[in-house]
Specification:
- Pfam families: PapZ_C, RapZ-like_N.
- This protein is α/β, with parallel strands linked by helices.
- It folds into 2 domains: 158 residues, Rossmann fold; 115 residues, no CATH class.
- The protein has 9 helices and 9 strands.
- The strands form 2 sheets. It has a 5-stranded parallel beta sheet with strand order 2-3-1-4-5, with helices on both faces. A 4-stranded parallel beta sheet has the order 7-8-6-9, sandwiched between helices.
- Strand 2, helix 2 and strand 3 form a beta-alpha-beta unit.
- Helix 8 packs across helix 9.
């Protein structure tokens, strides 16, 4: 069965990294495909008996983005296995990336007025407005504080997940770096006992057994996990009835290293019967990419 992955999102958010990962994973990749050619392209891939195809579409396709949600809907109605990944990042990160790469924003020329070029912020704001319909209905990855390795790992996990009712993701993060923009539900566990103040535990993470044992001894930690799990079990069926395909539950502590990681791992164990299930640790080193 033909599987299509569409990569879209804000310029500078990592679409090239995601597309290269998919290419390395055996996908036939096409970058900057005009929306009007999407139906024709997918038809040709079926005739060629390709099994995995990835397409990148963004603001470089002028005047057609408004049609993209309807095109995706019609393709899915025809039985096409269509997975959409929307990459985003906060304005500060995007501006920093453009400064480091010294590249121009793709909307620079189109937004010129009277020979005057727009500012980078104006380009970003316009792009967000143009892509808003896509961001609202598809799976979002906030790449603001992700390394390229983490982004590759996350995209790989998404495309390997079967298209089940809802892809449930548990994600740990550090409040000192901000709440991730891809979170649907956010839980704050900074009130729990902190292993950071134990010199022996400080270098470890919530995935290490000594930290897990230390946290498990506190009744407040177990109660917090029970309450979050109970909330999710109560409301997950309604999320599954919604049109969404993904639900991301973000667990935050100060540094994203101990408490949030441990709670995320424990929640994932409690929901191990849900498939597909993804686990992410935003502020931990990414796994090796094969």
């Amino acid at each position: 069965m033909l599987k299509i992955v569409l990569i879209t999102g804000i310029s500078g958010s990592g679409k090239s990294v995601a597309l290269r990962l998919l290419e390395d994973a055996g996908y036939t990749c096409v970058d900057n495909l005009p929306v009007r050619f999407l139906h024709e392209f997918i038809g040709s891939t079926r005739e060629s008996e390709l099994e995995r195809v990835a397409v990148a579409i963004d603001v470089r396709s002028p005047g057609e983005l408004a049609e993209l949600p309807d095109v995706i809907t019609s393709l899915r109605a025809m039985g096409t296995a269509f997975r959409v990944i929307f990459l985003d990042a906060n304005d500060h990160t995007l501006i920093q990336r453009y400064s480091e790469s010294r590249r121009r924003h793709p909307l620079t020329d189109r937004l010129q007025k009277g020979g005057k070029s727009p500012s980078l912020q104006e380009c970003i704001d316009t792009e967000r407005e143009m892509l808003a319909p896509m961001r609202e209905q598809e799976h979002v990855i906030d790449t603001s504080d992700l390394t390229p390795g983490q982004l590759r790992a996350w995209v790989r996990d998404i495309v390997q997940a079967d298209r089940a009712p809802v892809v449930l993701t548990f994600e740990s993060f550090a409040y000192k770096r901000g709440v991730p923009g891809d979170a649907d539900l956010v839980f704050d566990v900074r009130c729990l006992p902190n292993p950071h103040y134990d010199r022996e535990l400080r270098p470890l993470t919530g995935r290490d057994e000594p930290v897990a044992k230390w946290l498990a001894q506190f009744g407040s930690v177990e109660t917090m996990i029970d309450d979050i799990a109970s909330f999710i079990r109560r409301w997950l069926p309604l999320y599954m009835q919604d049109t969404r395909n993904y639900l991301t539950v973000a667990i935050g502590c100060t540094g994203g290293k101990h408490r949030s990681v441990y709670v995320t791992e424990q929640l994932a164990k409690r929901f191990s019967d849900h498939s597909p299930l993804l686990i992410r640790h935003r502020n931990q080193p990414p796994p090796d990419i094969p």
